[in-house]
Amino acid sequence: MWLLVAFVLAAAWGIAQGRASMRARLPYALEGRDISVVGQVKGLPRHRSDMESFRFHIQSASFHGKALPLRGMVHLAWYRASQAVTACSHWQFRVRLKRPRGLSDPGVFDSERYALQHREVAVGYVRPQGPHRLLANPLCMDGLRSRIAAALHRSVSQAVPASLLAALAVGDKRGLHTPQRQRAQATGVSHLLAISGFHIGIAALAGALAMRALWWLWPRLALRWPRRNAEGLAGLFCAVLYAALAGWGLPTQRALIMITVAVLATTARRRISAPQALSLALLSVLAFDPLSVLSAGFWLSFAGVAFLLWCLAGTERGWKAWLLSLGRAQWVMTLALLPLSIIFFGQASLVGPVANVIAVPWVSLAVVPLTLLGVLALPFSPTLAALAWKAAATLMGILWQWLGLLAAQPLAQVYLPSPPWWALPLALIGAAWLLMPRGAPVRWLGLCLFAPLLFPHVARPAAGGFQVVVLDVGQGLSVLVRTRHHALVYDTGARFPSGYSLGERVVVPALHAMGVQRLDRIIISHGDNDHAGGAPAVHRAYPHAPIVAGEPGRLPLPAKSCHAGQRWQWDKVQFTVLWPLAHAHPRHDNDRSCVLRVLGASGQAWLTGDISRHSEAQLLGAIDPTRPGLLVVPHHGSKTSSSALFLRALSPQLSVASAGWENPYGHPAAVVVQRYAELGLPLINTARHGAVAWRAPAKGMPFVDWRWRDGHRAYWREPSPNK
């Protein structure tokens, strides 16, 4: 009974924290308004030539001189900043904010959940007009982390090893770019790019050994203080210091609490088992921050340690047993965390066990100690610190090259479609069954419980039918068209000056989540960034897909020209390019958009890019109004498109506008929305409903498969307000 009461109280505490965090968010009425805020920079700011990006804790806010009850963390960007933003500095800014709202697609990172977990009440940018004032620049731990990272980069000339060492020394991941992250993911060593619980344990062990050496040099100290107590406190001190340098991540919190429990038990002369310490750590983390359950790191950290304690308890001592345990630990971690990795990241590394057998001791027993030695030596001898860091960088460079060879192997990284929710508990039961002690009956049957996770059902259209998925890529366009055995992508979203590519962050993960293993064609309607910017990332993921474009000369990739008259058939579905004409010279780039019609047994779909009314009038002769159809709204619903003549002739069953939430262009325009309503044409906006899937089956009437935001409700993913 008491377990049920404890569970109810814990759930109530978590719900209360979640509701409080949601209520603290920016009121809708203040979105898009200029607000004056005073607060402090938190964490490590990111510096670029054209922008400063940082987290900012608002301590007071006002609007037109009137105080606002707005407090909490926001994420700000300051374009063309007048001066650099440093860690811990206090500022007064004039900002423009909006509530956290992310893109909503299958398999894509949930930024709204992340905002709730980190209690971010808004996101926004610093206005070009002031006043912007630096109020104070005090010393703090984040400032120390920033200075250590800067010293490390000055000492190590190679950019990649320096960035990796900065991540291990002070948790500074600002220098880790896409290639480094992709190599770590492909080899299953992403956990080594963060300060893990194991690294905290190494720091604690170093402190304990240092105290043991001191007691060995001066044995009389034992008369005043028991050696074991001194070792425990020294180890705890080193662990706390390293956790502070790490930025207090979840794995470091878990390890630190376990070490604290062990030290207190030793001091009190009480025995405590590792499972008890892990349980106390779990309860402490949940009591302090119940929203940590929204983090993948929470589940991976506690589940991984729990499986290790269960499977490796009672192992023999000695170096042979240690080597055997190391190999067994990689097998346990790979098998036990595979279900969680697939659920959270949609991928698995087949070379991960091999990579980790070498990388874990290499990094934890050689690279991390040398890196920390450099940190400790920096205040006293920068020369010694530089020598330690250069040695660590050499070792890290050797390991990184070897990991590159592993990552280049075929099938090093496998992407899997999103499984049903019940596949996770089944797979975890299967992992526990496989890892049962010797003598347990038919342990191999545990593999059968992995089947729904590893081989989920992917619904494919029958011959003659097709599916269209309009992805939510903000103010841009990307569409997947899938037949029985083929798939194409029409447009790929934008790529921003910061390097953030919607092709890489949205289109490719969504394709993987939907089980698209091969693309047969990539069509880029025209060269505008919001349609073509993500093309390089999509092509890297699917390098064998040919590219066809309305403006091939504007693309950074080789592409063939798209022009009217091109046609092909896949699985009894006809694909026809209707525009532009081969020798036409449109007045505007938008009217060079490649217009594609998909015609199946029961319906048709029109993909129109950014064409204007002029081009729409030229397409009237190709319209077959007898087939119910889907229209991807031209030019995101701009006033220059969606003419009444075109809409009446096509009379689509459903129209989907791909637009960004609160985009500065006002797409889809109010007059265009009204036009669709007056003609009785249903209109869906991806900004409001997320990705939209529409299916034209081989038999029967076309229908909407799903609207992602509507079908995947969560209290942190708010319904769209009617403003």
Secondary structure: elements and pairs:
Blueprint: H1 2-23, E1 34-47, E2 51-63, E3 66-68, E4 72-79, E5 90-98, H2 111-117, E6 120-126, E7 133-136, H3 141-155, H4 159-170, H5 178-187, H6 197-217, H7 227-246, H8 250-267, H9 274-288, H10 296-312, H11 319-345, E8 347-349, H12 352-377, H13 382-407, E9 413-415, H14 423-434, H15 451-454, E10 466-470, E11 479-482, E12 487-490, H16 502-513, E13 521-524, H17 529-532, H18 535-541, E14 547-549, E15 560-561, E16 567-570, E17 573-579, E18 595-599, E19 604-607, H19 613-618, E20 629-632, H20 644-650, E21 654-657, H21 670-678, E22 683-685, H22 686-689, E23 692-696, E24 703-707, H23 708-711
Parallel strand pairs: 4-6, 12-13, 13-14, 14-15, 19-20, 20-21, 21-22
Antiparallel strand pairs: 1-2, 1-5, 2-3, 2-4, 5-6, 5-7, 8-9, 10-11, 10-23, 11-12, 16-17, 17-18, 18-19, 23-24
